[in-house]
Specification:
- A seven-stranded antiparallel sheet has the order 1-2-3-7-6-5-4, with helices on one face.
- The termini are far apart.
- About 12% of the residues have low confidence.
- A hairpin with a 2-residue loop joins strand 5 and strand 6.
- The protein has one domain: Protein Transport Mog1p, Chain A (3-Layer(aba) Sandwich), CATH 3.40.1000.
- Helix content is 34%, strand content 26%.
- With 152 residues, it is of the alpha+beta class.
Length: 152
């Protein structure tokens, strides 16, 4: 019995450690998308991910900007309380609409564009695409979010 306990407890501890690690928040938002994924969704060339702080990563298209400005993606890892505030209704002209992405998500629309907020387990992030027609932003943000969710 003593030998069985000596084997079971370390195995159980390793199992719990690995299960917790699988749901831990990512250390860097730049590791959640590749430049190839961003390029494919936005139809432009992106050289690299640019850390803009410990919880922010940007991808900026190379070359000339189009009629909607330079194509850009911004990904921000946020704490749970920030995510929760993004679920509350806002007065016009801001609208917040639930979206079927991850465990919980909503899409915020303003006259300047849209922003997708997503939760998956203990990870919360906000994703913005800029420099594309407003009509395409939501679909692009959802496509990128699905790429991110595949890693979480």
């Amino acid at each position: 019995m003593q030998q069985m306990r000596a084997i079971v407890l370390p195995v159980l501890g390793l199992t719990l450690f690995c299960a917790g690690a699988a749901h831990a928040a990512p250390a860097s938002p730049c590791a959640l998308l590749t430049t190839q994924q961003v390029s494919a969704v936005l139809g432009a060339t992106f050289d690299k991910a640019i850390p803009a702080g410990p919880k922010i990563c940007e991808w900026i298209a190379t070359g000339a900007s189009g009629p909607n400005g330079t194509k850009k993606v911004e990904l921000v890892l946020v704490p749970a309380n920030t995510f929760a505030t993004r679920l509350t209704p806002m007065p016009a002209p801001v609208t917040r609409t639930p979206v079927s992405v991850g465990d919980a998500a909503n899409y915020e629309t303003t006259p300047m564009g849209g922003t997708l907020s997503v939760q998956k387990g203990a990870t919360y992030f906000i994703l913005q695409v800029r420099g594309v027609p407003l009509a395409n932003q939501q679909a692009m943000e959802i496509a990128l979010a699905q790429d991110i969710l595949a890693l979480l």
